[in-house]
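Trying the structure run again after the queue cleared.
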Amino acid sequence: MIKKARGKQSLREFADKCDISHSYLDDIEKGYDHNTKKEISVTIETLQKLSKGTGYSINEILGVPYNLDLIPEDQPIDELPEKIKALQLLDEVLIEATEDEIIQIKKFAAFLKQQRTQ
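Done. Tokens:
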């Protein structure tokens, strides 16, 4: 996905656009660290930078579609678009979210989940 988004731009140009080093971008595209030859693990901060630089959502970068399996089968059809809009909005917020904001979002989600069990 990243290589496709980079298109004809050089590694250096695209890495600058994403605010990461060109060697790290190369590692990400290849899927392994060029020094250790181990599979690369990308942080949420790097995913946010790639998302901002590519214009793709983090889900798209990871190849993960919105998880419609989380929506109950008996959910009325007319309510589905609002849930999808909410997922898209959350995705947009996460693109530029700070670590503190991510912690707040996780706490809020845990709060909502707890409210359902009471």
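The two ends are 42 Å apart (CA to CA). Worth checking whether this holds up in the mutant runs.
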